[in-house]
Write a structure and sequence with these properties.
Blueprint lengths: L2 H7 L17 E3 L16 E3 L28 H10 L4 H157 L2 E6 L6 H10 L1 E3 L6 H9 L8 E5 L3 H4 L4 H6 L6 E5 L8 H6 L3 E3 L6 H16 L2 H9 L21 E5 L3 H12 L3 E5 L6 H4 L3 E2 L2 H6 L4 E3 L4 H5 L5 E5 L8 H10 L2 E6 L10 H4 L4 E3 L8 H21 L14
Parallel strand pairs: 3-4, 3-5, 5-6, 6-7, 8-9, 8-11, 9-10, 11-12, 12-13, 13-14
Antiparallel strand pairs: 1-2
Helix pairs in contact: 2-3, 4-17, 9-11
């Protein structure tokens, strides 16, 4: 096959660059095959270079030298094909090898082209970033310089304005001081003139007074005799009234004072005479009882505050009462000051005012519950101490919302049901324990539980009769509110529970040893304290006074009570 035919079989991209020329003839030394050995492929003949050729036969090249202007460093393909043929390869093998070599070279060229394009794109991106960075840096430097100049100018203008304002203030102060001095001098002169004028008027007034006093003395001497005659007549009539009152037996004893229900008191006093003790302490009161000063009384009207004079209505005091006394009408819902068992032993019936205090006591209960739950006492104390909400390093602890909390009520009477109804408005769930379970209509959605369950399930709000044992059954972080009676709460145990973190906060309206309060409660700003003001409203006090007087009226007229205490229902 000729050279032209061979060239047509080669890849087209090589043909424009072909510049093949025959190479110089070389001597070939044939290597004979071994006997019986078949050659599967043409063996490459061994080249024998001329004797005067000093180059290595394998490293020798058969590339032709092209002209300098045409030298482009491309491979001479036809020459390499001819050399392969000279080495013993067939023309088909040579062409196939060149095709493979062509594919490799073309792929290498494509890869090299892509690499060069990527490098060029990367260089362009780098250059663009450098240009953008230079622009940004220039803009920042320009903005910084502008801002600095603006700030400096504003500062200079502000300094000038302050200097001008200071100068104006100094001038104004100087003018004001001069004006004040002038006004003071004028005022001093006016005061002197007024003082002289007043002194003259005083002297004239003294002269007139002396004249009027002399005239009054004369008139007094004239009226004196008439006055003495009138007094003698009045004394005679008053003595007669006292004599009539002494002959009438008083029927009820008033212990304490009534401040509001004056009409009701007057109507009861018309039924039976009223008497008040003169004693100022318990010893004097007992002496007064034994002296028969209260002989014939049938009923006693007493207030909570009367215990400051009489002390508790215990066995000693009840035994000293007149035998005629059959009723003790207490103004208040709680009657823990009265020994009901001692009264029963002496056939004395006791009454209270159970429902008159429901609203007011429930209101103060909700007030203490919300105040303790929201930890308001600490904030109020900080405000009065002049630190508003408190120092930044010791702000009051966050409080809690009532919504969704469980309110445990021990004793579901009138006050308890009132508290439950108002607590439900705040979204609280109510559980209660009572000596007997209420009817479903009275429960009004409240859940009845036994005493142990009430303590164990108390969520942060509850109103309990509790001591150390009960505190141990409760969750940590409860809120305790007591508006029942001070004696039902162990205050020492409450202080320990507060210090231990079992009780997070508390609200108290009643105390064990009123008017004394446990020092640990007074010192703890997480305890909201109210000095027994659960019923301290004009409306509630009026209702209680009228209710207690109704008990006195029924006792004197019908021999029964309107609201006898539960322990004596069988005596009604």
């Amino acid at each position: 096959m000729g050279t032209a035919a061979t060239a047509e079989k080669l890849p087209r991209f090589l043909l424009p660059r072909l510049s093949w020329q025959p190479a110089a003839p070389r001597r070939l030394a044939a290597v004979p095959l071994l006997a019986g050995q078949q050659s599967r492929a043409p063996r490459r003949p061994r080249l024998s270079p001329p004797a005067n050729d000093n180059h290595h036969p394998i490293l020798s090249r058969a590339f032709h030298a092209t002209a300098l202007r045409a030298r482009d460093h491309h491979f001479d393909t036809l020459k390499f094909v001819k050399r392969l043929r000279d080495e013993g390869f067939t023309e088909e093998q040579s062409v196939a090898m060149m095709k493979v070599l062509s594919d490799v070279v073309e792929e290498s060229i494509q890869n090299l082209t892509r690499t060069m394009v990527l490098r060029e794109d990367s260089a362009k991106a780098t250059y663009t970033q450098k240009v953008d960075f230079a622009k940004l840096r220039s803009e920042l430097l320009s903005a910084d310089s502008t801002e600095t100049n603006t700030t400096r100018g504003a500062h200079e203008r502000l300094a000038n304005d302050i200097a001008k304002l200071g100068s104006r203030l100094r001038d104004e102060v100087a003018r004001t001081q001069a004006s004040v001095r002038l006004d003071l001098n004028l005022e001093k002169g006016r005061i002197r003139e007024e003082a002289l004028s007043q002194e003259l008027k005083i002297r004239e007034t003294e002269t007139k007074i002396e004249q009027e006093v002399a005239a009054l003395r004369e008139k007094l001497e004239q009226v004196k005799f008439q006055t003495l005659q009138w007094l003698m007549g009045v004394c005679t009539g008053f003595a007669a009234v006292l004599l009539d009152m002494a002959t009438e037996k008083a029927r009820f004893l008033l212990l304490g004072s009534l401040e509001l229900a004056h009409d009701a008191l007057a109507s009861v006093a018309e039924i039976g005479g009223m008497i008040q003790p003169t004693a100022t302490n318990r010893a004097e009161f007992l002496t007064e009882c034994q002296s028969e000063a209260f002989s014939g009384i049938e009923a006693i009207f007493r207030t909570y505050g009367s215990a400051r004079i009489t002390g508790l209505f215990d066995e000693e005091l009840v035994s000293a009462l007149p035998k005629s006394c059959r009723f003790v009408c207490h103004k208040g819902a709680g009657y823990d000051q009265i020994d009901v068992a001692a009264c029963r032993a002496h056939n004395i019936r006791v009454s209270n005012t159970p429902t008159a205090v429901d609203d007011a006591t429930a209101d103060i209960t909700l007030f203490l519950l919300l105040g303790a739950l929201r930890n308001l006492n600490a904030g109020m104390q900080a405000l009065r101490a002049g630190t508003f909400r408190g120092r930044p390093d010791s702000l009051p602890a966050l409080g809690h919302d009532p919504q969704g909390k469980v309110l445990g009520i021990l004793g579901m009477g009138g006050i308890g049901r009132n508290v439950a109804a108002k607590a439900r408005v705040f979204g609280m769930r109510v559980r209660y324990h009572n000596r007997r379970r209420l009817a479903p209509a009275e429960e009004d959605g409240a859940e009845y539980v036994d005493f142990a369950t009430l303590l164990a399930e108390s969520d942060p709000n509850t109103r309990h009769i509790i001591s150390t044992k009960e505190f141990g059954m409760m969750k940590r972080g409860i809120v305790v509110v007591n508006t029942a009676r001070g004696a039902v709460m162990d205050e020492a145990a409450l202080v320990e529970a507060l210090d231990a973190g079992i009780v997070s906060s508390a609200g108290l309206d009643v105390f064990e040893k009123e008017p004394e309060v446990h020092p640990g409660l007074l010192a703890n700003d997480r305890v909201m304290l109210v000095p027994h003001m659960g019923t301290w409203t004009e409306e509630t006090e009026t209702k209680m006074e009228e209710w207690a007087l109704d008990n006195v009226r029924l006792a004197l007229q019908e021999g029964r009570l309107k609201s006898i205490v539960p322990e004596q229902k069988d005596m009604q």
